[in-house]
Amino acid sequence: MTILQAVNLDKHFGGVAAVTDLSFSVTEGEIYSVIGPNGAGKTTLFNMLCGYYVPSGGSITFAGKDLAGMETHQIAAQGISRTFQNLQVFYNMTVLENVMVGCHMRTRTGLIKAALRLPSVIREERQVREWSLEALTLCGLEHLADREAGSLPYGELKRLEIARALASDPKFLAMDEPAAGLNDTETVEMRQLIQRLKERGITILLVEHNMGLVMQISDRVLVLGFGCLLAEGTPQEVQNNPAVIKAYLGEDV
Ligand SMILES: Nc1ncnc2c1ncn2[C@@H]1O[C@H](COP(=O)(O)OP(=O)(O)OP(=O)(O)O)[C@@H](O)[C@H]1O
């Protein structure tokens, strides 16, 4: 079943066409990767999916709902969560607190109720801790819950970012270069984590430069070139596609 569908998507910045007439669909439960050389339009596409950019044309629907005109928090409320290429971690807070911040989509407590410390607020806080610890466990970080986030090495910070994105209990997770800056061991851990997320039924859209990772874990791969769809298919299909080889190596095959 299709969970996300983009139809004739366009994005222009003045005279620059960053994404042109792009159509694709993501099937529920799959790992769908978007690759392409520098400047191909990956980040622009990612930002449109998450509501950071308004498309110049075309439509995006998620679970049958048109995302047009929705603010980022409204898109998040549909069940779409994202991670950032540049870490958005609160370094002075603990690991657990960082994830608890991500739970706000699932809670109902307002400022006044919280200030009054009503029993419902205390119950909800306990629930938030539980959800957060669950997300940390999934990301292999539960033993670091009380550590200050700023003391974590980069690979663990990247996984913390994912734990926070999971705290909102998303159906769909858009990941912006999760392996960027990771060493080989950390990349393997990241791959295993992404696979665990898929096993939990989360649909994943992955924008990633690490070809090894993309080819190992993706169900399907979309290749962009100059903002247009160059190819789409299984990792094996796109790797053998002459247009893709040409886009990456800059020569005819
Ligand atoms: N805010 C912007 N204003 C003007 N032009 C932009 C803007 N964002 C992107 N572009 C242009 O749109 C095109 C696509 O850029 P985009 O960043 O989406 O590519 P990318 O595939 O993510 O590249 P990279 O792999 O280097 O991150 C490029 O020509 C870029 O210069």
Topology overview:
Blueprint: E1 2-13, E2 16-27, E3 31-35, H1 42-49, E4 57-62, E5 65-66, H2 72-77, E6 80-83, H3 95-101, H4 111-116, H5 119-138, H6 154-166, E7 172-176, H7 184-199, E8 203-207, H8 211-217, E9 220-225, E10 228-233, H9 235-239, H10 242-249
Parallel strand pairs: 3-8, 3-9, 6-7, 7-8
Antiparallel strand pairs: 1-2, 1-4, 4-5, 9-10
Helix pairs in contact: 3-5, 3-6, 5-6
Overview of the structural elements:
- The chain has two domains: 1-79 and 172-253, P-loop containing nucleotide triphosphate hydrolases (Rossmann fold), CATH 3.40.50.300; 87-169, P-loop containing nucleotide triphosphate hydrolases (Rossmann fold, 3-Layer(aba) Sandwich).
- 38% of the residues lie in helices and 25% in strands.
- The chain has ten helices and ten strands.
- A six-stranded mixed β-sheet has the order 6-7-8-3-9-10, sandwiched between helices. The chain has a four-stranded antiparallel β-sheet with strand order 2-1-4-5, with helices on one face.
- A hairpin with a 2-residue loop joins strand 4 and strand 5.
- It is globular, with a radius of gyration of 19 Å.
- It starts with a strand and ends with a helix.
- The model has no long low-confidence stretch (mean pLDDT 91).
- Residues 13, 16, 18, 36, 38-44 line the site of adenosine-5'-triphosphate (ATP).
